Amino acid sequence: MFAVRPSFLSKSRALFTVLIFSLQFSFACVKREFNPQTLIALPSPQQTSLPRLNINTASAEELETLPGIGKALSARIVEHRQKFGPFRKPEHLIIVRGISEKRFRELRDLITVE
Q1: Continuous segment of H or E residues that includes residue 48
Q2: Which fold has domain 45-112?
Q3: 93 three-class SS
Q4: What is the pLDDT of residue 18?
Q5: 111 has which bridge partners?
Q6: What HEC string does 4-66 produce?
Q7: Which of 9, 40, 82, 99 gives the lowest tally of CB atoms within 10 Å of its CB?
């Protein structure tokens, strides 16, 4: 009836394989929509009613209660305050050596300058 040549089968199989791989990789590169419902909502300090620590009036021991702040770093914060005056904004804490942007992001909801 109908005879299929072997070379046609190998070419079509190769083409099919290339098509499958290209489809798989094209879906991997598709930009997905941002869905805010997929984010885990962490409670803010206002919701948990935690008092914020005033970095302008806190002692070195009080500063050590903050996550990621040890004795040396709390001493540097107090020293910076004494040398240059109070912090005007919480963001100015980044000026202190040892406070990275990542560390500040962890602290920003726990501190105040009021």
Answers
A1: helix 45-48
A2: DNA polymerase; domain 1 (1.10.150)
A3: helix
A4: 74
A5: 53
A6: CCHHHHHHHHHHHHHHHHHHHHHHHCCCCCCCHHHCCCCCCHHHHCCCCEECCCCCHHHHCCC
A7: 40
Instruction: Tell which phi-psi region holds residue 43, choosing left (phi > 0), alpha (psi between -120 and 50) or beta.
Output: beta
Strands (E), 1-114: 53-54, 111-112
Domain ranges across the chain: 45-112
Q: Which residue has the tokens 């912090």?
A: 87
Q: Which residue has the higher pLDDT, 89 or 15?
A: 89
pLDDT of amino acid 12: 75
Q: Which H or E element spans position 91?
A: none
Q: What is the band of 31 on the pLDDT scale with cuts at 50, 70, 90? A: low
Tokens of residue 35, six digits: 């869905």
Tens-place pLDDT, residues 36-63: 665 555 555 545 556 899 999 999 999 9
Of 90 and 42, the structure prediction assigns the larger pLDDT to: 90
Q: Helix, strand or coil for residue 23?
A: helix
